[in-house]
Write a structure and sequence with these properties.
- By secondary structure, this protein is an alpha+beta fold.
- It has 18 helices and seven strands.
- The strands form two sheets. Strands 6-5-1-7 form a four-stranded mixed beta sheet.
Length: 375
């Protein structure tokens, strides 16, 4: 069988044609919405797998939980949502214009119901066309509508969105709100078929974290997003960040790792807290993290042993506060030792006494009577 090879010009022609068709699809929907004039206009498209709703007040995304629609008001709880059946159905988007400006974008999912208040009904459009249009609004729009455009684009069936999200995430002309949303969703869609791939998304977030020209809220969002990768892929990256020469990156990574329940993160922070070259701010963060919700008896013992090696008041007080919040008889006995010590500063002894007053232990209460009298 003879295989015919395309020339370079044919390949380029195909790419240009694809670009033109993409721009054309996006422009067609944009023109139809603009033609509706001032006020709202609505359209609908197929939803990706895992999206359901009641078509009016809420929708659910399997990988991200429940959402209340922007038109819903009052107290809204999961119980209220369960009173309606969450049904698979299309995404309905309502775009409101005031002159040439888009001032609001609303998202609904589930059964289509007549809604005259949502303005002219453009009807059903392809999910790909809808996602392209909505992401163009996110990439060029202003204020809240730009952020509101991202959500429905993420719900479009089979739409490839990660590459465009990364563009928005890196665009310093976009608002912080929009960029943070784009960072979060790019991570969630990092493995989508036809997208740039999980490695490319991880690299882009890594670049944002390391870019000192970025504002700290954006860098923090990127770092937190890496930490939240749902299968722990970001932990090795965070461990690398923790040894970075950029003190801000190292401190943020240390704080994030210390709060993680990942065994690799716990092992790393248990060793890191002992380092003599660790910045004081980072050590205090780790102390609080080690005593948090994933703490074990071994962690508390480590903090008690660490106390005597610390050389500043802030870190020692962090240990006292952390162990006081943890409770338990061993920590109570240790705090009593601090309170009774003749070598500890008065302020620190008082802090230990205050912590011990929370314990409902007759032995501790009896010991405190004499200490409080002396103080």
């Amino acid at each position: 069988m003879q295989v015919r090879r395309q020339g370079t010009s044919a390949v380029l022609f195909g790419l240009v044609a694809l670009g033109c068709s993409t721009a054309g699809a996006q422009g067609t929907l944009e023109r139809r919405i603009a033609a509706a004039g001032d006020g709202p206009a609505q359209f609908n498209f197929a939803a990706r797998e895992g999206v359901c709703g009641n078509g009016r007040t809420y929708f659910r995304v399997d990988d991200d939980g429940w959402y209340q629609t922007t038109t819903s008001s009052g107290n809204f709880s999961s119980d209220a949502m369960r009173s309606d059946v969450c049904q698979r159905g299309p995404i309905r988007v309502v775009v409101t214009h005031a002159g040439r400006d888009i001032v609001k974008i609303e998202t609904f999912a589930g059964p289509l119901t007549p809604d005259p208040e949502s303005g002219r009904d453009i009807g059903t459009v392809s999910a790909r066309e809808a996602a392209l249009y909505l992401l163009s609004v996110a990439a060029t729009g202003e204020g809240r509508p730009a952020r509101e455009a991202i959500m429905p684009a993420m719900l479009a069936d089979s739409a490839v969105v990660a590459a465009k999200l990364l563009e928005i995430a890196k665009d310093q002309t976009r608002s912080r709100d929009v960029r943070r949303s784009a960072i979060t969703w790019a991570a969630r869609r990092r493995a989508e078929p036809g997208g740039p791939g999980a490695a490319a998304v991880a690299k882009a977030l890594n670049d944002i974290v390391r870019n000192r020209e970025e504002g700290e809220p954006i860098r923090q969002q990127a770092l937190s997003t890496v930490a939240g990768f749902n299968r722990g892929e970001g932990i090795p990256t965070l461990i690398g960040f923790a040894s970075d020469g950029d003190k801000w990156i190292a401190r943020q990574a240390m704080a994030t790792l210390s709060r993680s329940g990942d065994p690799r993160a716990r092992a790393f922070t248990r060793e890191a807290v002992k380092r003599s070259d660790l910045p004081d701010e980072a050590r205090s963060e780790i102390i609080r993290g080690l005593g948090g919700e994933y703490a074990t008896g071994a962690d508390y013992r480590l903090l008690r042993d660490l106390y005597t090696t610390l050389n500043n008041d802030r870190d020692r007080e962090s240990v006292i506060t952390t162990l006081a919040n943890a409770g338990g008889s061993e920590n109570a006995n240790w705090l009593l030792g601090i309170a009774q010590s003749q070598t500890e500063p008065v302020a620190r002894r008082r802090r230990a006494i205050t912590a011990l007053t929370k314990y409902d232990d007759p032995r501790i209460k009896e010991a405190l009577k004499g200490l409080i009298t002396k103080e």
